[in-house]
Write a structure and sequence with these properties.
Elements (H helix, E strand, L loop, with lengths): L1 H41 L11 H11 L5 H9 L8 H26 L1 E7 L10 E10 L4 E11 L2 E9 L2 E2 H15 L4 H13 L2
Antiparallel strand pairs: 1-2, 2-3, 3-4, 4-5
Helix pairs in contact: 1-2, 2-4, 3-4, 3-5, 4-6, 5-6
Length: 204
Amino acid sequence: MKIKNILCSFLLSLSLSTSVMASWQEAAIEVDKTIEQMLSKLSPYRGHVDADLEPLYQELELITNDKVDYPYIAKKVMGKYFRTATDQQKIDFAIVFKRTLLKTYGKTLVSFNIDNYELVKPRRESPKPDKQKVVVKVISSDGKSYSMVNYMLKKAGKWQLVNVVLDGFNLRVTFKNQFAKVAQKSKGDLGLAIQEWADLMGKK
């Protein structure tokens, strides 16, 4: 009986491990597809960081609309201020945040001047199959390498990006800290804080 229990536990562990790895592969496939689509739009901007990137932002928006959970990330960036915000303020902030993320992502991709990339298999399995971290090693045309860590969440059968760390730059945490500072200075006027953050991000 004891041997049977051990065997059952081993088989269950193996099954869960296979399931987790399959989940990572699913998430990795989505990341790979998205990168390929974005790279196809980057060609005209290679080596031109100071170019008008507005057309690129629009292309990236079309690509990422159903691949990035913008409302979820915006809520996390608002942090404690989300609870007291009105419905309209939440909408206003989501619009500003989406624009900010697209600009940051677009400028970063252009500055990386990507020549090639590869997905790095995880050393450790995620304890939760519906949450996966997909690391991408990006190689620039001058031989430099950068890391792009994609945090993926599966909801309603669909994988979406909920955070990204670009070469050590945690976008969600950084934006949350930036907005918190602006909100504190606004002395409780959340509408003013959102407008000031929009102005601040618009200059970047």
